[in-house]
């Protein structure tokens, strides 16, 4: 029999989800079979898979030690160079400024040098993450940015804060997110953009569909011009919803694609952008978040605004287009 004592970062979650993380190498069917066979107890009592764990609970698994070791995940913090800047940090939340070119999560081409791994190593070096103290919890981001989009990413440092932050993102109107970008073409008036998209199967892109499409997802974007001329516009963008590539496809839909956007932009315009500015990817920066609805352990964040400085590459291109005039966001 294997006993596990629930610590604060493992509490407040369903026991089946906890066991899927602790026994990460076990098939889900094996874990649910343990519940059916009544091989899982909490504080000496058999429980169902929907039991919510409490700090201090003693979870007993009728599992031989060698089988537990075979199925259990071996936690590891990868040593990777820190490329992000810390914008805000307390005991519950970490807000960082991600540079363009860095993935938030690993993909098939990059499994080591990711923002998430850099943050885990940063916290480990500070003594705030010790895998010997954790059973299943790892700090993590509550939203993501595309590899070539720079700016703010929010991490939850504890299980409870991560759960609250995820719920804030899910409810949509709790954390306001604003971006700044430069588009092709003249965009000289504020606009409210509404449309419906769906993800293309097996591809990292979305397409517009009709509202009636069974897979349609509504998206809403607010666009505010800051600087503009006949060729380019610098705009501030506020997300009302948070769909994949929302800003990129919405701006492209009104013939103002983000400069350098090879997925939704104009091929000839992108060639000109590369020749003029040496830019090979979309110029998009997540520059501000504001907590407008908070609760629980994170109630102290109410009305807090966090901004990320605009990258030097962005400012250099802005200066070539509009001169040294100050950006007022």
Structure write-up:
With 329 residues, the protein is α+β, with helices and mostly antiparallel strands. The protein has three domains: 2-71, RNA-binding S4 domain (Structural Genomics Hypothetical 15.5 Kd Protein In mrcA-pckA Intergenic Region, Chain A), CATH 3.10.290; 85-171, Pseudouridine synthase; 175-322, Pseudouridine synthase (2-Layer Sandwich). Helices cover 24% and strands 26% of the residues. It is built from eight helices and 15 strands. The protein has helices at residues 15-22, 28-36, 65-71, 115-125, 159-171, 246-253, 267-277, 312-322, and strands at 2-5, 40-42, 45-46, 58-61, 85-89, 93-98, 140-141, 150-156, 175-184, 191-199, 206-208, 217-228, 232-239, 284-291, 305-307. Strands 5, 6, 7, 8, 9, 10, 11, 12, 13, 14 and 15 form an eleven-stranded mixed sheet that branches. The longest helix has 13 residues, at 159-171.
User: Helix tally?
Assistant: 8
Overall helicity = 10-25%
Structural class: alpha+beta
On the 0 to 100 scale, the average pLDDT is 92
- The general outline is elongated
Strand % is 25-35%
CATH class of the largest domain: Alpha Beta
| Topology as a string of helices (H) and strands (E) | EHHEEEHEEHEEHEEEEEHHEEH
Query: Any guess at the CATH architecture of the largest domain?
Result: 2-Layer Sandwich
Number of strands: 15
The CATH superfamily of the largest domain is known as Pseudouridine synthase
Number of domains: 3
Radius of gyration: 23 Å
Here the CATH topology of the largest domain equals Pseudouridine synthase
Task: Provide the low-confidence segments as ranges.
Answer: none
The major sheet is characterized as:
11 strands, mixed
Q: First CA to last CA: what distance?
A: 60 Å
